[in-house]
Specification:
By secondary structure, this protein is an alpha+beta fold. The chain contains two helices and seven strands; from the N terminus they run H-H-E-E-E-E-E-E-E. The longest helix is centred in the first third of the chain and has 18 residues. The protein starts with a helix and ends in a 5-residue tail after the last strand.
Length: 117
């Protein structure tokens, strides 16, 4: 019984690691900025550079949508509405692109608009 429990636990850990793999060629200099992102209202971490990505986004009169794509191991890309309570109002985005922190289990944790040009 203990052996089966260990196998299941290792399998779950490995499957989560695959979803939360860091982006290709991450810039280590950006890691502190990503780690500084906190969920609005809760103050909890938005996760790390592993769950946060620069994304394509669009804005309409109702707010923002982000393109969730294969980088999160999703079957096919889709647009997802950003909940207003997940938007971080920061102007120091060093990526010059929109950033979303997302997990398939929890959805959008945080969204940062690109710095205005």
């Amino acid at each position: 019984m203990i052996g089966k429990t260990i196998v299941v636990a290792v399998g779950l850990a490995l499957s989560h690691a695959a979803v939360a793999a860091p982006p290709e060629n991450p810039n280590p200099a950006l890691a502190p900025w990503f780690e500084s992102l906190k969920q609005p209202g809760a103050g909890a971490s938005c996760c790390s550079i592993a769950d946060c990505r620069t994304v394509e986004f669009r804005q309409d009169r109702d707010g923002y949508e982000v393109l969730i794509d294969g980088r999160w191991k999703m079957s096919k890309p889709f647009w997802l509405r950003v909940p207003p309570n997940r938007i971080i109002d920061r102007t120091d985005n060093p990526t010059n692109r929109a950033v979303v922190c997302f997990t398939p289990e929890a959805g959008i944790l945080c969204f940062v608009r690109p710095a205005e040009s």
